[in-house]
UniProtKB/TrEMBL annotation:
CDD domains: MFS_MelB_like. This is Glucuronide transporter. The keyword Electron transport does not apply. The keyword Membrane applies. It comes from Arthrobacter alpinus. Signal peptide: none annotated.
Length: 473
């Protein structure tokens, strides 16, 4: 162990309670992330079909291709993060600091397709969205990895997971309450999207800077710059990470299908676009209530069991959404809210579960690699987003969705129902089945952390003994 590694090992492990400002600052980062991500998730398909005039089938192919590209960009970003270390800002915050402005400006470009002919517009859509995904990888991978470097306590990680969910939901609720009701067929929506994304670029930059200066990496890292071999060594044999990746891929497939088609469901199936705003308001109360209860729920039931319960709720809600008659709006809306409850429970917990797999890899190999671990996790989530978003668009195309039509055909309505209800139900059930055999419980994680700390203390004592022996010789 060299002198730099020894000095890092001598730091106190991050087992204490995080300050409120750190938790708040971390949550602000995901609010900033979602100014780009949720805006694209909720409105990009609507923008492509109803504003840019791209067909649903072409838009579905675009979402599939570009999001798969984004998934591989995550792996590249994860490797870059593992290779970097700044002695003042640490491993992750430099990327957030310097990558935020390009990310937010690319969001403006993605929603500002010029009228340059059908081929030119489609090319602009591919390039701008691909660059947006690449920029998002270089901000989101460090941001997501940062949680595991701030603390190793399950309860504190649950707070960070809740904070980032609150940040994301705050943005999603704003979009749902104030922007979604404006998505009326036949309207000129280009000025709205341009103005919205420009404002988000300014606000998002401030939120990212708050994250950078209010958070700190506190977990001991014995190897600051991780080699390619060390990165992939930690992934080999990490069964919990593999299973979490598979489950997340399946869950995100269902979630993105739901999120992509939800506006169409309220507008064209239920004929009540205003209910989207009502849902968004209820989501705020749901999120804050769940966030307040989550640390206690984790202590009582464990993260794995709550994840399984959330997936079951999403599946149940999806079934109701798919089958509820259009005239029974109250029943359909109840199904939507049940899916939202399940979705938020899983999304609050999944980040804490991912951070736990970092310790599992360190326990196996002795090397801590937050970057590549989060990147692999994000890679599978991005592929789920790609498949889910594409399936939703293909469901519209299969049904024969007609952009701007005052009324959709029965077959088009069936396609929308399939995207908003059937797909989320099927993929939530599959995600649940994988998590039933997930091996890394909270009790096992606690044992692993204790063993890592004991090994580290033994190595530090050995290094100090050798130094004393050298000084006396």
């Amino acid at each position: 162990m060299n002198q730099k590694q020894t000095s890092q090992s001598a730091k106190a492990p991050a087992t204490g309670v995080l300050s409120k400002i750190s938790v708040l600052g971390y949550g602000a980062g995901d609010a900033a992330n979602n100014l780009a991500f949720t805006t694209a998730t909720m409105f990009l398909l609507v923008y492509y079909t109803d504003v840019a005039g791209i067909s649903a089938a072409a838009a579905g192919t675009l979402l599939l291709v570009v999001r798969f590209f984004d998934a591989f960009a995550d792996i590249f970003a994860g490797r870059m993060v593992d290779r970097t270390y700044h002695k003042k800002l640490g491993k992750f915050r430099p990327y957030i600091m310097f990558g935020s402005v390009p990310l937010l400006l690319l969001s403006v470009a993605t929603f500002s397709i010029p009228q340059i002919g059908e081929t030119g517009m489609l090319l602009w859509a591919y390039i701008s969205y691909a660059l947006l995904g690449l920029a998002y990888s270089f901000v989101n991978i460090p941001y997501g990895s940062l949680a595991g470097a701030m603390t190793q306590k399950s309860g504190e990680r649950a707070k960070l997971a809740s904070a980032r969910t609150i940040g994301a939901v705050a943005v999603g609720s704003f979009l749902g309450i104030f922007i979604a009701p404006l998505m009326k067929g036949g309207e000129n929506l280009q000025p709205l999207f341009t103005t919205l994304t420009v404002i988000f670029a300014v606000v998002g930059t401030g939120l990212y800077m708050f994250t950078v200066f209010s958070t700190k990496e506190r977990v001991v890292r014995e190897v600051a710059n991780v080699s390619m071999k060390q990165s992939f060594e930690t992934l080999k044999g990490n069964k919990p990470l593999l299973m979490l990746c598979i489950s997340s891929f399946l869950f995100l497939t269902g979630q993105l299908a739901l999120g992509t088609v939800q506006i169409y469901y309220f507008r064209d199936v239920l004929g009540s676009l205003s209910l989207y705003a009502v849902m968004s308001i209820i989501n705020i109360f749901l999120t804050f209530g769940m966030a307040a209860m989550l640390p206690r729920m984790v202590r009582s039931f464990g993260k794995k069991n709550i994840y399984i319960g959330g997936a079951a709720l999403m599946a149940l809600g999806g079934l109701v959404v798919f089958l509820a008659p259009a005239g029974m709006v109250w029943l359909a809306f109840t199904g939507v809210m049940v899916t939202q409850m399940g979705l938020y429970l899983v999304n609050m917990l999944v980040w804490a579960l991912e951070a736990d797999t970092v310790e599992y890899g360190e326990w196996k190999t002795g090397i801590r690699t937050e970057g590549i671990t989060y990147a692999l996790f994000s890679f599978t989530r991005k592929t789920g987003q790609a498949v889910g978003g594409a399936l939703a668009a293909f469901a519209l195309a299969w049904g024969g969705y007609a952009a701007g039509a005052a009324e959709q055909t029965d077959h088009a309505i069936l396609g929308i129902r399939a995207g908003a209800g059937l797909l989320p139900m099927v993929f939530a059930i599959l995600a649940l089945l994988v998590m039933l055999v997930y091996p890394l419980t909270d009790a096992k994680h606690k044992e692993i952390v204790a063993e890592i700390q004991a090994r580290r203390a033994a190595r530090l004592a050995d290094a100090l003994d050798r130094r004393d022996s050298d000084d006396n010789s």
